[in-house]
Amino acid sequence: MLSELQSTQAPLVAFVGAGASAIPPSSLPGWLEFNQVLLECLCERIDDYSRHRQPTAKMLAAFKALRDDRQLLTPDFQAQLMEEEIGADYFGVWQSIDTDQTGPVHTALAELAARSRLVAIVTTNFDRLLETALAARGVPFEVFCDAAGFDRLLARDGDAPTPLPVIKIHGSIDDV
Hints:
Mean pLDDT: 84
Number of helices: 9
Strand content: 5-15%
Shape: elongated
Radius of gyration: 20 Å
Structural class: alpha/beta
Low-confidence stretches: none
């Protein structure tokens, strides 16, 4: 992959999704895997609260059917409910699975950036693995992950030499 990208002359914008951080050795869970754990915890708490009148496995199967078959209780909806219920503390859960163990995609992107092949990285990931790989390779970068940061990015002078923008459209694990 890296050699093919090196042969093109035009600068690239990389768009990076969850798959980049799911690859070993990072092995971070995807959104659906994380949602599965949340559903299991929810069912266990309901089971405890109801004094075991509703078996956990039966509730989990019902919730999964609502999520998968009827598109109710989707991971995005659950995240919204949790954020509304517990606020920014919800993002603390993501911090508990944070790692510095970068993977091959992070390393390859850092190498492309070091060779001035990238003009920006756009990612849906919360994790810091791109930043870790860029820093390890000595690539100057700046993270933009909130409304104020996006405004700063828009105000940048396009002609001035600037650090590589890392645009985290869903936020960042280190900035709840």
